[in-house]
Amino acid sequence: MLKHSIFLRIYAGLVILVVLVALFGYLLVQIINYQRAQEYRESLTDGMAYIISEGIARQPNEQQRMDWISDASNLLELPIYYVKADKVDLTRAEAKRIEERKAVVRWDAQTNVAYIIIGLKDDAGHLLYIKAENITERQMKALPVFVLDYLVYYPGQEKEYLQRIQHYFAYPMQIEDVKNLPLDSEQIGRLRLDHSIILYRDSATVRGTTISIVSPIPGSTTEVLVMGPVPLFNWMPFQLAAGITLLSLFVLSLGVYGLLVPMQRKLRAVNYALNKMKTGDMSVRLPVESSDEMGSLASSYNSMSDHIQRLIEAQRELMRAVSHELRTPVARIRFGVEMMADEEDYEYRQHQVEQIDKDIEALNTLIDEIMTYAKLEQGTPSLDFEQIILFEVLDQVVIETEALKTGKTLELQAPPLTVVVDAERRYLHRVIQNLVGNAVRYCDNKVVISGGLDGKGNAYICVEDDGPGIPEDERSRIFEAFARLDDSRTRASGGYGLGLSIVSRIAYWFGGSVHIDESPRLGGARFIMQWPAKRFKDSKRKAGDAAKDSDNESLNVK
């Protein structure tokens, strides 16, 4: 069912596309957040890496350096290793960060442990290797100690040197008057006891929750060192959410465009074919590449084009044939009228009137045949199907034909009275009448008429004669309008060549077919028409519905 509907395929494709875009967005967020988290960790440690490097560089000898590192480890409550540089494998990007006196952070997502690598000033042969498992308030409150230890070497110039090292820090640092800070009495009391405090601020802005560290400056009762505010890591900031949403919509729109392009291409081909048809060019046919709605549209267009082209050709052929067929009786009428004008003999004039009357009757018959054929050929007959006892119609045609006293033998192999078929009585009678009349006209002596059911759900009627038959290479042409064969079936036999054309069109609109072969019993021609014995439950429908049941173009009818 899915492959037969282009719209279901589009809907299913949209669902799959949405799922894929959602997965793509999720993975993209994870990848971006991994990089953002790494940059966030490095930005928080870059400044401290510089301060620690400066602190170690100020120590005059190796022992004091080791003591300083030990004190720093105790203060941070983190293990700090003084290792040789050649023992640590650094990537090109990590080595560049070390040269720029920035920190290298290696994060282990499975154990949630960060390994921090810090380069040393004036000691390229060694590195500091810090293992940070848990970052608590203890470590955060220790950070101002390192900054103040750096500033103690510049008494009276603390603010100036704080500004010099600001670019190493991703968050602001400044010396503020404690009175300018929104602190309560408890927090001020803790500062007076030389304790650092941490301030948490929730904000509805893009920055979200921030942390600030306030630490008292030794020797000052009014000024404090404020580090921050430091924004906590936001896994889904507005910029990232907006970017991923826009990118997802763009990818989704590309996917939708990709789903609609094939249909757009097919519709463009249909539009091109219709424009060509509008100019009178019926040669364009659409490729039927699928069994969905577009394939059905292409198939319907091709069938319509074939039908219109056939109708146009049939109309042209009909006009040529009609003009030819009308000339003979009209010429005879004109000749008879001219003869009557110069003839005074009453009996001769009466004879001419009778001949003219026959020609007029022939014209009426020809017009009736042409109108019937045109009505069937246009493809819009109104067929009212009903249940018909097949024997009754066959017997009626036999009785009517015998009343004409043709001198030929008619044999009816009557089907049982229980054989009931769905058909339009008027047109079924016309088919049998035309076939029997055609057989009587060309047979030598005998015509056999039969009908019934073939065991496959089809009804049939069969008319055979003992005449000369029809050559196999002429059998397809016999159903063309005004067609006559050149041998035994000549113009002298009578008729206008429309009877079998009418039979073929009725068979088509019945949803069946008609074919010719050689009679195995009589040796002449055998005509067999087949059509579905049962239609719909209500046994009635319009010709337009009947056409859908059979698109059998093997009728060889133009």
From TrEMBL:
Its EC number is 2.7.13.3. The lineage of its organism: Bacteria, Pseudomonadati, Pseudomonadota, Gammaproteobacteria, Moraxellales. Keywords: ATP-binding, Cell membrane, Kinase, Membrane, Nucleotide-binding, Phosphoprotein, Transferase, Transmembrane, Transmembrane helix. Residues 541-551 have a biased composition (Basic and acidic residues). The gene is bfmS. Its main location: membrane. GO terms for molecular function: kinase activity. Residues 321-535 form the Histidine kinase domain. It is a multi-pass membrane protein. It is found in: Cell membrane. This is histidine kinase. Residues 263-313 form the HAMP domain. It comes from the Bacteria. It catalyses: ATP + protein L-histidine = ADP + protein N-phospho-L-histidine. InterPro entries: 2C_sensor_his_kinase (IPR050980), HAMP_dom (IPR003660), HATPase_C_sf (IPR036890), HATPase_dom (IPR003594), His_kinase_dom (IPR005467), HisK_dim/P_dom (IPR003661), HisK_dim/P_sf (IPR036097), Sig_transdc_His_kin-like_C (IPR004358). The chain crosses the membrane at residues 6-29, 238-260. It is an enzyme of class 2 (transferase). Pfam families: HAMP (PF00672), HATPase_c (PF02518), HisKA (PF00512). Residues 536-558 are annotated as: Disordered.
